[in-house]
Each structure stands twice: as C-alpha cells, then as structure tokens.
C-alpha cells in the first residue's frame, strides 16, 4: 500500500479527548491500523497512542506514532494527547538508539496540513533513525534573518497565543 492510498486516513477508538474530530473515521487508513483491519508492524501501544513501522521508511527503523482517536490535524488534537504522542516518540527514539539498528541520531517530524506535505490526514509523528550520509535532507533557505524580521514574527505569534500561554 502506498502513501497515496493511505491518504484516506488515520486513527481510532478510546483515548483522551479530541475536539473537532471524529473518534473513528471509516475511510482513514490509520483508523484501520488502530482497529486491526489494516496490517501493520506494531512497535508500541497504550490507551492513547499506537506506534508502528512506516511502510515507506526514510531509513530502516522509521516509525509513526498516532493517536488512537481520529484527529485530522493538530487543530483537532487535544494538547494533552499531543504531549502523549511526543512522550511516546521520546521513548521510541531511545529504543531506536538501543535497538541495534543503524542509529547515530534521530529525527522527529510532524507534517500538519497539505502545505506541510501531510499525506495521511490523521495526525502522526514520524520518528526515524539517522546515520551520516543516509540521504535524508530538507531543502530550505537556511539563513540568518534580520533581528527586526524575527521580532516582528515573534510578536505576531505571541499575540495569537491565548492570554494564559503568553
């Protein structure tokens, strides 16, 4: 199954609260993984999240951490459930380093939205081992920006935060 086929979905069942999302999406491939109707190589599971091997790995050991309740985007995901996903990712990164798989570093990556190259619209955290020369790269305009530009951007983001988070 390719990522294009997987675009249909993600997650399932009982877990911490999900705001604007369904508990299960019938056309979501990741919801099928949670339900056990879609084959997967499971690595970790608790009441809230599930981790399994990516079928198109960037590197050997590349896995995905998903919430069990369907949430298409971060906007749909409860903040505590998001924190639970990253805690699981943290543990799995340590497990990758200890696994015997080639692993000199670890990337954790979450794409939220089509513009960010999210292909399966069920929130998922990529956790993958890195080695020198493994070929993975993100091409971007990595350059130092003027302080005024950074300060202006910071002010806009800060103003958009709820008052109790500023």
UniProtKB/TrEMBL annotation:
Q: Which GO terms describe its molecular function?
A: catalytic activity
Organism, by scientific name, is Cellulomonas fimi (strain ATCC 484 / DSM 20113 / JCM 1341 / CCUG 24087 / LMG 16345 / NBRC 15513 / NCIMB 8980 / NCTC 7547 / NRS-133)
Domain of life, per UniProt, equals Bacteria
Instruction: Output this protein's name.
Output: Histidine triad (HIT) protein
Motif Histidine triad motif boundaries: 122-126
- Residues at the catalytic site: 124 (tele-amp-histidine intermediate)
Q: Which Pfam families match?
A: HIT (PF01230)
Per UniProt, residues of the HIT domain are: 29-137
